[in-house]
Amino acid sequence: MTAATVSPARPTASRKPSARLSMGGILKSEWIKFRSLRSTWWTIGATVVVMVLFSLTMAASLNFAASEPEMAAEMGNVSTVQALVLGYVFAQLAVAVLGALIITGEYSTGMIRSTLSAVPTRLPALAAKAAIIGVVTFVVGLIGIALSYLATAPMLSGNDLVPDLGDPTVQRVILACAGYLALVALIAVGVGTIMRHSAGSIFTLVALLFVLPLVASFLSQDWVQDIAKFLPMNLGTAMMAVTEADTGGVDVLTPVGATVAMAIWAVVSLVAAGIVLKRRDA
Amino acid sequence: MIEARGLTKRYGPKTAVDGISFTVQPGQVTGFLGPNGAGKSTTMRMIMGLDRPSAGSVTVNGQPYAAHRSPLTEVGALLDAKAVHTGRSAYNHLLAMAATHNIPKTRVQEVIEMTGLQSVAKKRVGGFSLGMGQRLGIASALLGDPKTLILDEPVNGLDPEGVLWVRNLARYLASEGRTVFLSSHLMSEVAQTADHIIVIGRGKILANAPVKDIVDGGAQHSVRVRTPQATQLAELLTRGGATVTSDEPSLLQITGTEAAGIGELAAASGIVLHELTPVTSTLEEAYMLLTADSVEYQTESAAKHVGHGVDAPADAPISEGAQR
Question: Do B70 and A18 touch (CB under 8 A)?
């Protein structure tokens, strides 16, 4: 640090007088912050790769089922579009990490104090983060599905199993998958804001997204199943189900009911986050 | 202009800031001085709306910070050298901060040049030294060309050249009519930069006065005399109105009279002097004196040093905190 350090300060040189805090500016700021971290791109890359790999696995199973009657009986009439969206099971973890890190990364580095100094009313900063995460994960979900389609089409075309993208049901499932990932990411933004620690937030999210549904699946009590229906993973299954076989025979909500329930999860998480963010010392 | 009224912050049973009131005037550098844990950073965080006061209030340029429509052009703050995401480059950090207020990219370049960060601006902040982190923090603070600057320990980690630069910058900004409020735990640093000093200890204001008053009030002049006839000289001096203390049989500490007078008195009385030394306490000692009661983690040697060398003059203008 020896370069030109004692040059005279010119703090008034060329600032436009129009400088003012605005929601558009906050969104732009959050976008710059989001895109300028390597972890963002690693996580997005991981999301897409996981989705494509799962699609290939699922496509292989569908292909196999089409040629082997025994396997076909076991699979039932699983809808072919599942080959495009099944990756959500693991992709949801990647987008949850993305959602949590957008805020816990600021707490762990101290950046949050800069953020809240620039936006002292606080809630617009949280809203901007949520908006960016929501839109980005939705788009990443669609990209993952598109790449899955391209990757599996050659394999599935032999048995005429390629999902018809013009089919409204297929379109619904694709949107449901992208929407589910976006809502999981929003839940994660809320959890990250409330917990402030990366490790704690990710642990909580893994427990919510994986461990609880797994534990519930081992228990047969009716009341456990009634509650389990409302866990995000099972809501995701319900959102993307076309045939009964798509749900693995588990009792789930209707696609619309499940979408509403997921939206409530996200809203509750973000509202709670907004309340603690507003009240707490930074 | 920063105005605090009865500002208080409690963390559980501990009171970090205890009902302080002060005004920081524009057009001058105001030093905020106090030992570690005295409440400086907490006060600054409350000014910036990051911590919520338990009681009282603080306004910047007439309004609570969060009520300003363009906060970064009202106040620029360096609260913490590393309030920056370590994975992001300095340039992108500044760009993101600027974007919130629609501050143009040219201004980002300007503050980068102003703080001498050109060569590292595109590097990730995680690899920055403390000094570079400080410069980036100062660059962020200047971004909005703010009317008020709050700098918490701005010279921490800077090399001598950087220290000088911060000092000049603070003085320059104040000369433009801005409010500059900077904290330090080093009296010497503040004395060289500030026009006015607010001293805080254990969450309370100990002094709030122009630098000159603090320095003069705290500084104490005494004379050290070594003589084999200590008792005799002490008697004569005490009769003449001076105060004499003694730590060793042949060593006297005299206040209230000049070295010349003591020498003349000794000569007139035929007393042999082995040493006659005027002792002026340093700024650092004046400050230690002010905060002696309020140092949170007092070391034994520091306590001994304070209790030993300098006793508070009863007529000091800042005697509120100094009398023990």
Answer: no
